[in-house]
Hints:
The chain is 46% helix and 11% strand. It is of the alpha/beta class. The strands form 2 sheets. A 6-stranded parallel beta sheet has the order 1-8-5-4-2-3, with helices on both faces. Strand 6 (147-152) and strand 7 (157-162) form a beta hairpin.
Amino acid sequence: MKNFTYYNPVKVVFGTNAMNQLAALLPANEKVMITMGMGSIRKNGVYDKVKSALSGRDIIEFEGIEPNPEYEKCIDAVRIAKQENVTFFLAVGGGSVLDATKFIAAATKFEGGDPWDILEKGALVKSAAPLGCVLTLPATGSEVNGNAVISRREKGQKLAFGTPIVMPQFSVLDPATTLSLDARQTANGIVDAFVHVMEQYLTYDVNTPLQDRQAEAILSTLVELAPQVNKTPQDVEIRANIMWCASNALNTLIGCGTVGDWSTHIIGHEITALHGIDHARTLAMVLPAIMQHQRDQKRDKIVQYARRVWAIDGTNDDEIIDTCIARTKQFFEETGCPTSLSAYNLTPADCKSISNTLASRGMIIGERNDIGEAQVDAIISLCA
Length: 384
């Protein structure tokens, strides 16, 4: 096991009626900016509950954060926050809203020039305004970590940054808020959480048996819950367990002492930037392709995953791996996420620029740093 430091200061308030604790969680005498998405919280009642909980507080609202949050929109919020002397941000929505809010909170305090440098150049975030979260869409795990992903359309980029400084002070997780999610949103959340686990788990062995089994528990639970939520989407207990899986998938605990891959996400981000496909749906395409391309490098872990999560028996590792990749693709498809570019009327040629883009940034990816320009092209070809 590799050395590590684990730090997670986020206070999670979980369960039905957790919103009732919002007023007590939010520090007094703050000028609060409530950040929101495209309007769904006004339809599902969450907006009214938040406003009721914050009655009498000094608040302003910022609405319209996109599913893949855009830099330009975030900068609008930064400008308003500075004008209004905002001292606290409350993200109400899914991971995109929270990711945007993390960047906004950092950008309002950034003194290094263009805040885009935080993402493009890895500029140091020395401080950020405090923030909290009311989560309505379990997927990204952003409610329990310091990571965020922001897009910039004019540059055709979708980039990430991470720092403990933007971890929420608190996150309110009420599974009842997810009952209004449609089948597409639900599927995206399950697949996103599943791949978050796989990026930390499906690498090479560094003697982390506890972390492996923690990861396998999340994967197995998501496999169990996906068909259940499709059948009975109004079951709040199923929704609660999906929500908790998504948080545990990326609260960084299962990654302690391990090595991470993240090549699926890096390639997936570029597909989203090029073609606007939902983030989780790009992951559903790319992960099986990476498993196929990296089957020799990841052999031991794929076989372990096959046996422990899918109960695939046999003595021939190659046959086990073939079956395992097929079962993973079947799971994504049955959950509601297609696993090929052709499902979106695209070909690998439509994504040819991705390898060039990553190469121009000097990026060689994968847990062994063995996926360069030619390998990215090969992986994208396997997504056909």
